[in-house]
Amino acid sequence: GGWISLVFERMRAFVWCLLLTIALSTSSSALEGQEEESRQADATKMSVKDLKAALKEYGLKCKACSDKGEFVDMLNAARAEEARKQVGGSCRPREGCEQGCDLCSSQSSQAQGVCGAMSFCEWAAAAPAAEKEKGSRGAPATPKQTA
């Protein structure tokens, strides 16, 4: 029964991966919710002047905003979008992987914490969007020189 033990080993790895996914998604969702509440609370405590300055850091200006709540909403949306942009990457098998390699590319392994928990997988971070854009234009970015 060599193939039977292989099947059971793969099933055990899959169940382990599934349990990790559930545990990590539950805890990360709770943490994300707490972080979001904290961020929103911080924005509501800011003055309109500070809110405008924070929006300017994101390259935004709210000309149609008539009250503080609209500035807060716009800042929270900008922060959320920035956070979404920073998350990226994928799980892949480590070089020389011999067993369980197909689990690395499964949907349940596409959370960084789950991927890192499997010794035969590694997390490949996605290149930042700004870097992709620079690369697609062909010319490398040159630093500004000051006299």
Structure description:
The protein is mainly alpha-helical and about 150 residues long. The chain has 2 domains: about 1-45 and about 90-125; about 45-85, no CATH class. Helices cover about 65% and strands about 5% of the residues. The protein is built from 6 helices and 2 strands. The protein has helices at about 1-45, 50-55, 70-85, 100-105, 110-115, 130-135, and strands at about 90-95, 120-125. It has a two-stranded antiparallel sheet. The longest helix is centred in the N-terminal third of the chain and has 44 residues, at about 1-45. The N and C termini lie far apart (about 75 Å). Mean pLDDT is about 75; it is low at about 130-145.
| Helix percentage range | 55-70%
Mind telling me the C-alpha Rg? 22 Å
- What topology, given as strand order, has the largest sheet? 1-2
Write down the overall mean pLDDT: 74
Keywords: Signal
Signal peptide: 1-30
Domain ARMET C-terminal: 42-76
InterPro entries: ARMET_C (IPR019345), SAP_dom_sf (IPR036361)
